[in-house]
Design brief:
Layout lengths: L1 E5 L4 H5 L8 H8 L3 E5 L9 H15 L2 E7 L8 H21 L3 E4 L12 H21 L3 E5 L8 H11 L4 E6 L10 H8 L3 E6 L1 E5 L11 E2 L5 E5 L8 H10 L5 E4 L7 H15 L1
Parallel strand pairs: 1-2, 1-11, 2-3, 3-4, 4-5, 5-6, 6-7, 7-11
Antiparallel strand pairs: 8-10, 9-10
Length: about 280
C-alpha cells in the first residue's frame, strides 16, 4: 500500500489564503506522501478547469508526486430526466478533468438529498445504476476508473453502497471506502469496511471523536449522526475509528492501493496531517 493525502486536508490553509490547490502539491511531497488526491478544484479566474488541471498535473510531475484521484460532488437524485441528463453530462466532463490531472480514478457522490415521500434507497437503485453506467462507460473509454463513496448520509451505509456496485455490474465502477464516514450513520466501521473491501478502488483514512447522543451537544465542530450521536473530525489514530482493524480488512480482501489521509478536525492543520501520515506509515 502507498500513502496519499486529500487536498481537503489542507482546507484550513486554503481558506486562510496560506495555500492554494497548486501549492499543496509541494507540501504533500515535503511531508512525505507518495501521492495527493484532489477534491473539486477551485479554478483561478481566467482559466478553464481543464487548463488548471493540466497545470496541476505538470506541477505534480515537476515535484515528483503522484495524483492518486479526483473526488467531486454530485447528485443523481433529480426531479426530472432532463435535470439528470445535465448532471450526467457534467460528471462526464469531470472525468475529462481527472484525465487532465493524470489521476487514474474519479470519485463521484450519488446524492446528498433524501427522496420525497416513501422512496427508499433500494427503490432508487435502478435509476442510480442507469446514470452510473453512462458515466463509468464514458470514463473507461478515456482510461479513468470511477467509484462512489459512503458519503452523504442517504448513500452512506455499507449494505447500500455494496448493493449499488453489484447492481451496476461494471468492472470499471467500485468504491472509495471511507473508514470514518460509516460513523455518520452509526455503523461499526470495521464491519462496514470488511463488507466493502472487495469492491475498494481507494481507501480514505479518517478519524472521529465519538460522543453518545445521551449527552448534551459536546461543543464546536461536532455534528449529529443519523441516530443522534455526536462526532467530530480528529487526527488519524486519535479517535474512535478502529483504523488498524479496517486496514487489516482491506488487506485480507487483497487491496493494495492508496491509504489516503483525509483530515477534517479542529486541530492544527500541519501537525495533524504529519501525525496522520506517521500513523498510516506505522500501519503499512
Amino acid at each position: 500500500m502507498k500513502t496519499s493525502v486529500s487536498s481537503y486536508s489542507f482546507q484550513k490553509f486554503i481558506n486562510d489564503g496560506i495555500c492554494t490547490h497548486f501549492s499543496v502539491i509541494a507540501l504533500a511531497k515535503e511531508y512525505g506522501f507518495d501521492a495527493i488526491e484532489f477534491t473539486d478544484l477551485i479554478v483561478p479566474e481566467g482559466k478553464t478547469e481543464l487548463e488548471f488541471a493540466n497545470e496541476l498535473c505538470a506541477e505534480a510531475k515537476r515535484v515528483g508526486i503522484e495524483i492518486s484521484g479526483y473526488s467531486i460532488g454530485a447528485n443523481l437524485l433529480r426531479d426530472s430526466d432532463e435535470e439528470l441528463d445535465k448532471e450526467i453530462e457534467r460528471i462526464c466532463r469531470k472525468a475529462d478533468v481527472a484525465k487532465a490531472l493524470g489521476a487514474p480514478l474519479m470519485r463521484h457522490d450519488i446524492t446528498f438529498s433524501h427522496p420525497k415521500g416513501y422512496m427508499g434507497f433500494t427503490n432508487l437503485i435502478p435509476s442510480f445504476v442507469k446514470a452510473i453506467r453512462v458515466i463509468t462507460d464514458y470514463a473507461e473509454k478515456i482510461g479513468i476508473r470511477t467509484c462512489t463513496e459512503n458519503h452523504g448520509f442517504f448513500s452512506q451505509d455499507s449494505e447500500r453502497v455494496v448493493a449499488l456496485v453489484n447492481a451496476a455490474e461494471r468492472d470499471n465502477f467500485g468504491l472509495q471506502v471511507d473508514m470514518g464516514n460509516f460513523l455518520c450513520v452509526d455503523e461499526d466501521p470495521a464491519s462496514a469496511v470488511s463488507r466493502c473491501a472487495p469492491y475498494a478502488f481507494n481507501a480514505h483514512v479518517k478519524d472521529f471523536i465519538f460522543k453518545p447522543g445521551t449527552e448534551d451537544l459536546p461543543g464546536e465542530g461536532f455534528i449529529h449522526t443519523r441516530a443522534g450521536n455526536y462526532i467530530r473530525g480528529t487526527i488519524a489514530g486519535h479517535g474512535a475509528v478502529p483504523i488498524r482493524q479496517c486496514v487489516k480488512a482491506l488487506k485480507r480482501a487483497g487491496y493494495d492501493g492508496y491509504l489516503t489521509l483525509e483530515f477534517e478536525g479542529l486541530e492544527d492543520c500541519e501537525y495533524s496531517i504529519k501525525a496522520g501520515l506517521k500513523y498510516i506509515n506505522s500501519l503499512i
